[in-house]
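Quick one: structure tokens for this chain, please?
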Amino acid sequence: MTEPGTRIVHLTSVHSARDTRIMRECATLARAGFDVSLVARHECDEVIDGVRVHGIAKSHGRIDRMTRTTRHVFERALELDARFYHVHDPELLPIALLLRLRGRDVIYDAHEDFPRQLLGKTYLPALWRPALARICEVTMHAIVRRLSAVVCAWPNIAETFDHHRKVLVQNFPYPGEYASVDAAPLGARPRNVVYCGGLSISRGLREMLRAIALVQVPGAKLILAGSFFDAESERVFAQEADPARVELIEWCSRERVRALLAQARVGLALLHPLPNYVDTMATKIFEYMSAGLPVILSDFPRWRAVVDASACGFALDPFDVHALANTIERLLQDPDEATAMGARAARAAREQYNWPNEAERLIALYRMLGATTASPVRTAFVGARA
């Protein structure tokens, strides 16, 4: 039964209501007995996994999202009049501060290291990026220190915050979440190599397309499941993708992703060494592992540590197309090695990299905040530094 004063409203202007991390957190809190709502992009108001979704229209471009959509999110937040607000986007931090000043408990959920992310934004003039990143960092941390808590998706993000209530809730899947019970053994599957996620130059699109063209294994195919980030990525795909070797699926539900992984032999994550990628983790790595796939990923220290510890794949220079092609060939031509790696990946995902371990910390945070009787506004500026 839901306890009085335990209404939580999650807010996002950027993500859809079916964003994996956000809905996973919302559903977890709902099952723990909280009254959970989500304001997000969605075509209608409905209940999903025990979460009341309040849909807002999709924005038309970045400026529209940061003005009209942000205003709509704030209006919905006030209408719902909750004890807790959980904010998922940096652009909503001004709203978070306003809600905090109204005496609400407000939690910021840091999915990514946003200031470092700005350094890789090609739509910003290169000379401006360091200054903009620094301004963003100072402003963001000044606001977050005044909120009730900060939830961080990865250890490197947690390292950037000095909040006195800082909780690490990593973006791992449920055990077996992406495993299909009726999946054929790896050696009996089509020779598919899969990438799931946003499609862009910085996420290795060009290198994956060129590598699959070099693979000398009959039937080898690259499956790209995701949407293009920009026109340049679409242009590169149009120019370099061989229709006989590459299949594009522009949007996938979780069920569709699970089905694609059940028809694949290898999972790819060849992101470029940009500041926001090198130190953080890619959720897709753990989704591949959950599905029992060997992985080929960028040779970043944190990423290599995962594959080395579980012996479930290879860490490569993301720009070395020939090494990538050779490694794909190796796994496609040796199903026994690929199967053994996939089994170790699934075991590591099941025992170590799983959501239930993370969910306990999220629930504990809310229960601790719910037990706090001091005025949120009066204590907001106390103990903000670790």
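The first helix runs from residue 20 to 31.
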